[in-house]
Write a structure and sequence with these properties.
There is one protein chain. With about 500 residues, this protein is an alpha/beta fold. Helices cover about 50% and strands about 10% of the residues. The protein is built from 16 helices and 12 strands.
Length: about 500
């Protein structure tokens, strides 16, 4: 019996291989682990060679063969990888500060290096694998491990950020709420493709038609479970600025479907509370929800940072300041410096000094707000403003105690009087010294931007001050100045 010719020619088409979003996330974590491992192994090899090349320590008379250090290298790498895991350094955050990550890496790599050294003495001593682990090699291993891990993680970060911008490893996001907070979060997600979110829609308390910033209203609170299932939602942000406790519990219950991650914008009480402290009043416990951070020994610590920073800054930068003064005089007539009354601590006025970046008669027709492409700014002034160089003479104000390196940016008295009538708690920012830079400035809230948002940023700084926060702000300011990436600097 003859066979069907179609069956004789039948072939099975190969299935195309497509990685799911979960697989890509796992791949992202796996590649980070492999990058860390590679960097640690390379760091150990470089450290071995550094003992012979670098002059920081006496060269060894007879260094053991590299193969003798193989158990130590494996132990060192494995110890740090395990510590990275338990320190949640493989829990990838979408928007994490490089400086905060660096602080974590310094601590974990330091502790891991010391722990590996001690473990080697315990495990390998009096065995065939025992090899001396001199302090010079230990120092090089720590130094190169930290340096290469930081570099490797930055490469990894940039690669996966690039991939998210191209539409890979993105999560579907549902926004709950339609108020000011929801608008702000939606706008941030829309303008930050590197975060890796695709907004599927907005859910509100009552049924609405239309859209919010281009994203449609797709239902009410009771529709959340079905929306999560039907649209394969992976992330939910509850963006309500004012809600009852019972309402929030109900919303979270509705969102708990499968592997959905739920994020909640903190209510006003949580925002004000920050780090809660418990005080005692005659045996009655009270929660302290507002405790100004800068007082007592903290003021002395901050003043010490200001004095040391201003002194070192003026010593190192004085030659460049002299060159700048000469260039200003060559470009236009007038004073090199520009003095302007600003309001600082407790609303007291003081003369703030800057390099002159405008024409000498720029304010002959009255004081006005500086805007982008302001015709009054000189060519040299444009470059100075983009890099914050016109602010450098304020190190003198810091040295005299009129300003701090970090703090709320001082405003002119005329604007202060105007803003204090328009914005609640505006004068709160004058409870601390004004700063050359601040939390608002590094987040782009400068120039012709929202005064309300600036005040919120200043409030956050005043109520959450720490020495580390000041250091983070200074480092980010220096980086933005060097790379000329200051948002709204004009």
């Amino acid at each position: 019996m003859a066979r069907n010719s179609q069956s004789e020619n039948y072939t099975i088409a190969p299935r195309s291989i497509r990685l799911s979003n979960d697989h890509l996330k796992a791949l992202s974590t796996l590649t980070l682990l492999l990058v860390d491992l590679l960097m640690l192994l390379v760091a150990f090899l470089m450290s071995y060679e550094a003992r012979e090349i670098l002059p920081f320590f006496p060269r060894p008379e007879s260094q053991p063969l590299l193969m003798n250090y193989l158990p130590t290298m494996i132990l060192h790498s494995a110890t740090i990888i395990v510590m990275f895991y338990f320190s949640q350094l493989y829990h990838l955050k979408r928007a994490s500060s490089r400086i905060d990550q660096l602080r974590s890496l310094v601590g974990v790599v330091t502790l891991g290096t010391l722990l590996a050294s001690g473990t080697q003495e315990f495990l390998l001593q009096n065995t065939a694998l025992e090899t001396s682990y001199p302090r010079s090699l230990l120092f090089y291993v720590w130094s190169f491990s930290l340096m290469l891990v930081v570099v490797g993680r930055e490469w990894h970060r940039r690669f996966w950020t690039f991939m998210r911008r191209r539409g890979v490893v993105r999560d579907s996001l549902l926004i709950v709420g339609d108020g000011e907070i929801a608008l702000k979060i939606t706008d941030l997600v829309r303008n930050s493709p590197e975060l890796g979110y695709d907004i599927v829609g907005v859910v509100t308390a009552e049924e609405k038609q239309g859209d919010m910033l281009g994203f449609p209203y797709i239902g009410v609170y009771s529709d959340i479970p079905s929306l999560i299932d039907d649209r394969q939602v992976e992330q939910v942000i509850v963006a309500l600025s004012d809600y009852r406790r019972g309402e929030l519990v109900e919303l979270i219950s509705l969102c708990q479907r499968g592997k959905v991650d739920i994020k909640v914008y903190p209510d006003m009480f949580s925002y004000m509370a920050g780090d809660l402290n418990v005080d005692d009043l005659g045996g009655t416990p009270l929660l302290t929800v507002r405790d100004i951070a800068l007082r007592g020994w903290k003021l002395s610590l901050k003043r010490a940072l200001d004095l040391s920073g201003a002194t070192i800054g003026l010593m190192l930068l004085s030659p460049f300041m002299l060159i700048t003064a000469g260039l200003i005089r060559l470009e236009s007539r007038g004073s090199v410096f520009y003095w302007q009354m600003r309001m600082g601590l407790d609303g007291r006025p003081f003369p703030m000094i800057k390099f002159r970046s405008m024409r000498a008669n720029a304010e002959s027709s009255g004081q006005t707000w500086t805007v982008e492409n302001d015709a009054r700014v000189t060519r040299l002034g444009q470059h100075m403003r983009r890099s914050n160089w016109d602010e450098i003479p304020q190190l003198i104000n810091v040295l005299l105690g009129q300003m701090s390196l970090v703090g709320p940016r001082p405003e002119r008295p005329m604007y202060v009087q105007q803003f204090r009538r328009q914005i609640p708690d505006y004068m709160m920012r004058h409870r601390e010294k004004s700063g050359m830079t601040g939390w608002a400035q590094i987040n782009g809230l400068r120039g012709d931007t929202s005064i309300t948002q600036r005040t919120e940023a200043d409030r956050f700084y005043v109520e959450n001050w720490s020495l580390w926060l000041d250091i983070v702000i200074i480092i980010r300011t220096i980086w933005q100045s060097i790379t000329r990436s200051n948002p709204n600097a004009y």
